[in-house]
User: Fold these one by one.
Assistant:
Number 1:
Amino acid sequence: MQLCPSFLRAKPSIPEMDFAGQIEEVGVDVDPSQGLKPGVDAFGSIPVSEHLKGYGALSEYVVLDSRHVCIVAKGMEMPELAGLPIAGCTALCLAEKADLRHGQKILVNGAAGGVGSLMTQMVRNAVGEEGRVVAVCSREKEQLVRELGAQEVFDHRTPVPVHKLLAERYAGDKFDTIIDAYGVQSLFDNCAAFLKESGSYITVGVAFDHYTYTSMLLAVSRMLRNVLWPRLLGGTPRRYIQVASVCTLDGLQKLKDLCEDGKLRVPIDSIWDFENVPDVGTPEVCGEALDVR
């Protein structure tokens, strides 16, 4: 939303889209089967169309269509729920495109982030004990990522580029699929050395170098090149799939079920009081954050 032109956004605009809280009132047309009623805890996400009108989650009250609200998962706390909707639905979309199967060997890049931490758990659940989950994250997050299901972890901050380390380690035993939850262009450019020819590179897109229009255009050009540039002209000889996730009620319910079954949890970096929200956006806070709520 930072890159959305100002003339397309209402002013003033309230930040953020994901939320969790207690229901105050329910409209007469809401389907009773959803279980939404006053006093019930719920979570969800404000759709982009409403966010552009100035509505945001960092407010005392949120009003929106019941299609974007789901009752809470049993045993979950509000901070976890507030970090689940968009990241969780994105992870579900990545998992669907990856067509994960028992016994596969999967690489997850950005495994400690909001999407990646959920993705790592989904991959572990899908490939089972006979499968292998390899993760890329910072050294500081290695223990967490191992707890989430990774059996081997590569530090992306090492002097040697991580794609070279992966090529050395897995050239003779390549991955079935690579899931990039961050969007590292160099990883895709060099993935043929450690991704099977039949494998796919599933990603959230190309990460922006900076939050500027120039960086956005550069990222878009890279995405198009990844999809369209033919192998005969030097394109990466692996299938590139980029997901465009939308937070839906069906997705929220799937996430709720996974949490209730004990197959998914939301790692929380820190919790901030409402009045201290302006400080959350500082680099000192967000630089290594998983989910700040």
Number 2:
Amino acid sequence: MTNWLINSHPSRSKNVDPITFNDEDMRDVYYSQCDNLVVRAVVAQIRLDRMLVDNRSSVLYLTVTIEEEPLATHTFMEFSMVDRRSAYHGVLGRPALKEFWAVASIHNLCMKFSAERGIATVKDNRPEARR
């Protein structure tokens, strides 16, 4: 089993358990190409099935909830609105990952974040990503 320790020394402003990735996270992941990580999120109380997780992206404040039952977390975030057709409903960029204390793993096609009751894992939403 391979483990990757991502944030073993979080900021003192929040007590967070370490986020790790292991072989269990790669179950049901098939490597045909370098896929984008696409997850479900609730933005302004609207469920969006195709949210691209992008470490490079960085404006409108909306409530964002990321959940993987029974764990969830939410916050208010800034969004840039674009009037264009897109394959994605939105982009969760670096500011979102920082705000949620989230770590995305393209290799594992999942994202982990700190919730009040522990570390939650959000798996890639591959059926929606391929639409």
Number 3:
Amino acid sequence: MLVAMKNPVKQADSETETTVAPDDRSPEQLATPASEPPHTPLEAQSDSPWLPLKNPVFRTFWLASLVSNLGTWMHEIGAGWLMTQLDASPQMVSAVRTSMALPIMLLAIPAGVLADRMDRRKLLIGTQLMLLCVTGTLAWLTAMGWITAWGLLGLTFLIGLGLTLHVPTWQASVPEWVPRSQLSRAVALGSISFNLARGVGPALAGLLVAWLGSWIAFSFNAASFAAVIIALLVWKRDRVESSRGQSFQQSLFEGLHYAFSCVAMRHVLLRLLFFVAPASALWGLLPLIVKQRLDWGADGFGVLVACIGGGAIIGARLMPELHRWLGADKAVTMAMTLFAIGMTLMSVTTDRTINVVATLIMGMGWMITLTSLNTAAQLSLPDRLRARGMSCYLTMMAFSMATGSLLWGMLADGTSIATAQKIAATTVLVTAAIGLKLSIISTPEPS
């Protein structure tokens, strides 16, 4: 049974609201306030990766997030496969992911400002209720046989709108659930939750969609939001921070100025663009790869996405050692190279076994790259700018995913799926090499 949870992270102003005035400090000074210890580099954190789970607040939210992520991945399978039945053109199939990413790309930064100005708990509850209603509507329309291709895209856009408000608010709340010294491990555990769900959700969805139809995946996703709502209802925040001493516009520009003035954060955003834009070919084209190149059904789609999740779990286990061995910058380059190798394997053969191995490899590369970049972004951000800074991160990721998926779909339509995959893999290799010039480490490495 869930009980009311008090935040174990000691706050300076318990049960009070702090109004923050504009700050003229440099991004580097903002990132390391005098009241906080210096950041620990990614490579230097050697404690158990599971340490944050000893924290009851974080553990509750981690478990709730795991259930929600399971629903999200089941939804991904259901939506992608449903579009292949409604309209199997590469552009329309890839547009499913684009329609979800588009509102994040356009509105994540204003959403981050709201998250830094409002009670994050109330904002999260509101977004979860919205997502429950929209996905429930999608499940009902699909079950009744009334859904159309454009209707699917429209409701997917609304889901993306809810996620636009939810994700930066959720990520900005993580430092309230764990001590700062455990932040990078908490971020990594969040990625593990996401990828555990990716390992189980698609396989389960593939079986259920093949048996009952896509509506069952949407129904599970709608129900999964209740787990997060319950966790949020019993969470008792110790404080509420806001930027209400500033206007909305001032808060917006302060966040943008920080994100692009801090060298480490700017490099994170560039490397995110360099990876996600070409790597989005995997997600935009995977339903077509399964259906047209591999002649596999919804169960096969679930198997390959589950393999990506399995590879991501392996990557999460190997990532700390890889960071200690190579450092975060070179680890990201190696992970991008792994992803490109997997993409190349998929492009040259229709053998299902080799494609399974390829997706495992790509899952490892995807996990290590994005978790490293996400952690580096979190460590470069001061708490009071965290939602705005992470909204810049999400905007860049959504922009890269939306435009990339659409462009790879158009290229596959004009040439072939295999050709688009080969070009995407080559692009990942080139940008991996360029990224070596862009360090994501926000503090000097220990001697």
